[in-house]
Amino acid sequence: MSPRAKVRIAAVDAYGHVLNEYRPGADHSVDGDIPQRPWAVHLTDTDRQFRLIGFDFDAKTEGSAPASARDAQTLAGFLSEVGLPAVICESGPSGAGTCGWH
Asked: What is the pLDDT of residue 59?
């Protein structure tokens, strides 16, 4: 679904912990193996024309993950009704009811 041939891979710190940073040059081909770290898809093509739109359903408090998931599913249903495909994916730390959705 990527409008570009590469996705950006999350950076790691000196201890090998994954950071929520996607630095220029940390790219991975979409034709290769699935990255072993989180990755970010560009929303624009190489001409910087938007081809995707993103929505962020945060679950910032413990126990808010069910509402976040429900909201993501509701939006996907609305988009489907008007003929637009949707992809829903988990975002943020998982567990303890804190997982959000994109």
From this structure: 82
